[in-house]
Design brief:
Strand content: under 5%
Largest sheet: none
Order of helices and strands: H
Oligomer: single chain
Radius of gyration: 18 Å
Structural class: mainly alpha
Distance between the termini: 52 Å
């Protein structure tokens, strides 16, 4: 059996922050009502959602 190799963790930046790669999808909604509906649907499906208004 092959031994698992540990991946080297990158050194923190000057401010001490360690970057952790993430992936996401942005859904553009027509209005606040649609935003709430889409958020609720995805949340019920177990997705980790964040609401943003710009």
């Amino acid at each position: 059996m092959l031994a698992k190799q540990k991946q080297a963790r990158p050194a923190p930046g000057r401010n001490g922050f360690r970057y952790r790669q993430q992936y996401g999808v942005i859904v553009l909604c027509k209005n606040e009502r649609e935003q709430a509906r889409v958020y609720n649907v995805l949340s019920r499906r177990g997705m980790d959602c964040k609401v943003v208004t710009v």
